[in-house]
Design goal:
alpha+beta, 217 residues, Nucleotide Exchange Factor Grpe, Chain A, domain 2, 3-stranded mixed sheet, 3-stranded antiparallel sheet
Length: 217
């Protein structure tokens, strides 16, 4: 093969390769043009899904907001009921207590208004009322403080005065001006009492006279 033939052959091969490259580029262009609509469709589908999800979230948010407003209204109503119940309990807390006291007062009125009542019958009526009142205090957990003959207790007793006494130990309650009471174990009012103290060691006038007589003899 001559040199000219070789050159001609190479030229033909190059032209053939250029044709193949052009064909490949055309094929790629056609493929890309065919794939482009599919990608656009995918993007449209993706946007629609996002819009649906957003719409669903908006509906859920609106539902939660409605639930919140309903719960808030229920809470406000509950708070108002609590305030009213508290006011009622303050105003009528002593209703049962006062009802029993009114009954005792009625008994006092009947005893005082009884016609031709003697001192004996009046006393008997008052004793009955006192028993009724004692029962009332017991039902209210009000218990009298024991004072007479007991040692002075500053938590239970209030000393009004002291008296000398040889018959009692020092600081013993020997008189009671008014009773003390406890409510459910807590002091309600202290008992007002008189307590004993040791007799003074100073000799009395009689003892002094007797002592002077003994000296003269």
């Amino acid at each position: 093969m001559t040199s000219q033939e070789k050159v001609s052959q190479k030229t033909d091969e190059k032209e053939h390769e250029d044709v193949e490259i052009e064909n490949l580029e055309e094929i790629e262009t056609e493929v890309l043009e065919e794939e482009a609509p599919e990608e656009d469709e995918k993007e449209l589908v993706s946007v629609e899904k996002l819009q649906e999800q957003l719409k669903k979230k908006d509906e859920e948010l609106a539902e939660q907001k409605g639930d919140f407003l309903r719960e808030k209204a229920d809470l406000d109503n509950f708070r108002k009921r609590l305030v009213k119940d508290k006011e009622d309990s303050v105003q009528f807390a002593n209703q049962r207590l006062l009802k029993e006291l009114v009954q005792i007062d009625d008994n006092f009125s009947r005893a005082l208004d009884a016609p031709n009542a003697s001192l004996k019958t009046l006393r008997e009526g008052i004793e009955i009322i006192q028993k009724q009142f004692t029962t009332f205090l017991k039902n209210q957990k009000v218990v009298p403080v024991e004072a007479m003959g007991k040692q002075f207790d500053p938590n239970l007793h209030e000393v009004m005065t002291q008296l000398e006494s040889e018959e009692h130990e020092e600081n013993t309650v020997i008189q009671e001006y008014s009773k003390g009471y406890t409510l459910n174990g807590r002091i309600l009012c202290s008992a007002k009492v008189v307590i004993s103290k040791k007799p003074s060691s100073t000799p009395t006038k009689k003892e002094e006279q007797k002592e002077n007589t003994d000296k003269e003899e």
